[in-house]
Amino acid sequence: MRKLRLDPNQPIGKLHVIPDFLLSPEALFPKRESVKVTLVVDKESVDFFRSKARKAGLKYQRMIREVLREYSHHYQQKSGS
Description:
Strand content: under 5%
Structural class: mainly alpha
Radius of gyration: 23 Å
Oligomer: single chain
Distance between the termini: 72 Å
């Protein structure tokens, strides 16, 4: 019996176009109004965010802002205020 060889660079079966569903970079990280504050944070927390940000190629301050934002949104939705 002869074995059929498939070209790995060719599609198998019928192709379907999938519309682009990804958000633009601007939509993923929209500019928000900011307020500069002075905040004392323990060294262990800052070291944690710096380490995670370095591995992800991000800025640690941005990570801290996003965590605070998500936290506040979570509890605003729960309390309705």
